[in-house]
């Protein structure tokens, strides 16, 4: 048996997330179905680099499966059959043991939002129709607070389901396009908790709009407590965008047009 790694991307709008679940459409279920059909196997099981929630996208995603062999043109064969919102970039075999999920050392997510209504960004970026410009200085201060933390129990949908709520953020940055009305928040860490990124993004937006304060944010970290109702930013703006492994470099093959805008990092 050989371990084959699949480098893919998908638009999550039509799926209830990556993970296979009963009676719902998932990315994992779709890939397993077409892999088994193409390889003429009764069934096949794949292991992904992580879970994405319903509606969340992945511009770079890795999964693995163990097989005796594969056809030379398997990627081409799969792309002809898979729905248009899933693409196989590459398939490769490594000469050392690596697990798609547990072998990853860093993950990067990007969250996109725009203030003016734009029909061409529907499903690819979150529309945040705040009437006033966001306070960038307060938002930057919020990111600085987040970057200094390690325990994110207060920003997780179900902290009790995790063995630990400790995450080490490597980078968290805010970008703006040349119009000043489109934004990109990028965050890299060794791991993330369930719902953590969208909750953090929502908190940054609330602070930028003035609905919440930096003091509230710091208090949540200091006490590991959250408000009565934990809010999340919409799923359509979130992308899993980079997966990093030791001894393995995967070139980005981004296919979403929004990634190609001219983004200026806000300092």
Beta-strand share of residues = 25-35%
What general outline do the C-alpha atoms trace?
Answer: globular
- Provide the CATH top-level class of the largest domain: Alpha Beta
For the largest beta-sheet, the strand count, sense and barrel status come to: 10 strands, mixed
Which fold name is given in CATH as the topology of the largest domain?
A: Alpha-Beta Plaits
The computed structural class is alpha+beta
Low-pLDDT parts are none
Q: How many domains comprise the coordinates?
A: 2
- Cα gyration radius (Å): 19 Å
Name given to the CATH architecture of the largest domain: 2-Layer Sandwich
Q: Sketch the topology as an H/E string, one letter per element.
A: EHEEHEEEHEEHHEE
| Overall pLDDT score | 92
Count of helical stretches: 5
Helix content: 10-25%
Euclidean distance between termini CA atoms: 50 Å
The CATH superfamily of the largest domain turns out to be Pseudouridine synthase I, catalytic domain, C-terminal subdomain
Number of strands: 10
Properties at a glance:
2 domains, Alpha-Beta Plaits, 267 residues, 25% strand
Structure description:
With 267 residues, the protein is α+β, with helices and mostly antiparallel strands. The protein folds into two domains: 2-93, Alpha-Beta Plaits, CATH 3.30.70; 106-265, Pseudouridine synthase I, catalytic domain, C-terminal subdomain (Alpha-Beta Plaits, 2-Layer Sandwich). Helices cover 21% and strands 25% of the residues. The chain is built from five helices and ten strands. It has helices spanning 27-39, 74-81, 136-147, 196-209, 214-223, and strands at residues 2-10, 47-48, 57-67, 86-93, 106-114, 126-127, 169-177, 182-189, 238-244, 263-265. Strands 1, 2, 3, 4, 5, 6, 7, 8, 9 and 10 form a ten-stranded mixed beta sheet that branches. Strand 2 and strand 3 (57-67) form a beta hairpin. The longest helix is centred in the last third of the chain and has 14 residues, at 196-209. The radius of gyration is 19 Å and the shape is globular. The N and C termini lie far apart (50 Å). 30% of the residues are buried. The mean pLDDT is 92.
């Amino acid at each position: 048996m050989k371990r084959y790694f699949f480098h893919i991307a998908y638009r999550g709008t039509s799926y209830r997330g990556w993970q296979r679940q009963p009676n719902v459409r998932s990315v994992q279920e779709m890939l397993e179905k077409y892999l088994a059909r193409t390889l003429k196997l009764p069934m096949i099981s794949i292991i992904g680099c992580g879970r994405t929630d319903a509606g969340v996208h992945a511009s770079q995603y890795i999964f693995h499966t163990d097989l005796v062999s594969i056809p030379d043109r398997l990627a081409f064969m799969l792309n002809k059959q898979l729905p248009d919102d899933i693409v196989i970039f590459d398939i490769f075999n490594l000469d050392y043991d690596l697990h798609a999920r547990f072998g990853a050392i860093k993950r990067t997510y990007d969250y996109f939002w725009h203030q003016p209504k734009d029909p061409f960004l529907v499903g690819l970026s979150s529309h945040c129709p705040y009437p006033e410009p966001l306070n960038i200085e307060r938002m930057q201060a919020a990111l600085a607070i987040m970057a200094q933390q390690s325990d994110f129990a207060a920003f997780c949908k179900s902290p009790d389901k995790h063995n630990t709520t400790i995450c080490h953020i490597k980078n968290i940055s805010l970008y703006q396009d040349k119009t000043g009305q489109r934004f990109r928040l990028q965050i890299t860490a060794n791991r993330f908790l369930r719902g953590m990124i969208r909750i953090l993004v929502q908190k940054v937006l609330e602070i930028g709009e003035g609905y919440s304060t930096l003091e509230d944010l710091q208090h949540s970290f200091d006490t590991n407590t959250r408000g009565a109702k934990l809010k999340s930013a919409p799923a359509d703006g979130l992308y899993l965008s980079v997966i990093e492994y030791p001894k393995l470099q995967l070139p980005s093959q981004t296919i979403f047009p929004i990634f190609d805008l001219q983004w200026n990092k806000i300092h």
